[in-house]
Amino acid sequence: MGIELESKAEFDWLHLRLGKANAVGPTFLDAFGSALEQLPEAPLDGPARPLLVTGEGNAFSAGLELPALVDRDRAGMSEFLARFDRVFRRFAQLERPTIAVVNGHAVAGGAILAMAADHRLAADSLASGKPYVIGLREAALGISLPAIAATITEEALGRAGSSLEVVLTGSLYTPAEALALGIVHRTVPAAELIAQAENAGTRYAQATGRAAAILKRRWRGALWSEPSRGEDEAWLDSWFSPEAQRRIRAVVDSLRART
Predict the structure, then answer these.
(1) How far apart are the C-alpha atoms of 74 and 94, rounded to whole Å?
(2) pLDDT tens digits, one per residue of 177-224
């Protein structure tokens, strides 16, 4: 169990195999951050070496690992938030093309991880043929978005229109609905997901490392902006609000009752 780095001739894969639906907690952040540091170099004047990221089974990533976080005090959550920002920012700022290969549920932090990628390809169903969902649940829990998550969402969806619906309602969408909203760029039959993802990897490998780095900063420059301390504190205020704590603990109780 962990994150597997698979290097091919033109691109690299990161396979998320962290159990518990790849929930974003301390273990996930440590493993994902370490995997990003181990990526092969993309030479400036050679192929850009796109990075493809996918999950396993029914989940791409099902969001924050609430049971591992619910009992942390403010200082503990502040430390977690700093790690979350550091790792997600590192992924968003990779100076090479990135492709999210969404194989299953991508909720909250999982949807943010997908939207941080330059290209987002999603299966139209689980491999079993059953449906799955994509979306941001934070508002439905009474919490806001961390600064880097808000920036990623704005870059992916814009500051108005569909992005306001996605962030304010906390709704979960089918892959087809996520496509219409711009959360993903393409949907393909589940059986074709890996082959289609590698086709995309080959297309994006046509850029040089130098060109990709320059163009990403030009087109997605907001991802290099630094958060203010006030944004962090506002997120923590929302997390520790009485109603958010009630909702979060209800979800945790439900999750623990299933195990």
Answers:
(1) 30
(2) 999 999 999 999 999 999 999 999 999 999 999 999 999 999 999 999
